[in-house]
Amino acid sequence: MASKVHRPVHCRVHEVMTPRPVSLPLDAPLTEAARLMRDEDVGDVLVTHDGLLCGLLTDRDIVVRAVAEGRDLSGTRLADVCSAGVVTVGPDEATEVALRIMRDRAVRRLPVVEDGRPVGVVSVGDLTPGRDEASDRNEIAR
Question: Whole-prediction pTM value?
Answer without folding.
Answer: 0.81
